[in-house]
Amino acid sequence: MCVDRYSTSIELVEQLRDEMGLKLVGTLRASRALLPKEMTSTEGREPGGSLICHRNDIQLVSYCPKTKKAVLVASSQHRLPLHWSTRPPTCSEWSV
Questions:
Q1: Per-domain boundaries in the chain
Q2: Is residue 20 over pLDDT 90?
Q3: Can you give the three-state secondary structure of 39-76, one letter per residue?
């Protein structure tokens, strides 16, 4: 299931996965709860770079297309390794 940034939340991803067995991919607003600070911040990040975090089989990607802009995507469908054409992402475990 694909969802836009107005409907996606980590809680929704977990609920659909746990209760209905559905996989979800969707962009997130930076103001959503349960997001790590380093994923929403663009300070010190290079344009074109990505950060990836994992928690409970959910992958969160923060892509920085340009200075002071971050695009957040949550997925219960995808897991590393993914194919990267430019730089490899920084990977970390995310805990709240």
A1: 2-93
A2: yes
A3: HHCCCCCCCCEEEEEEECCEEEEEEEEECCEEEEEEEC
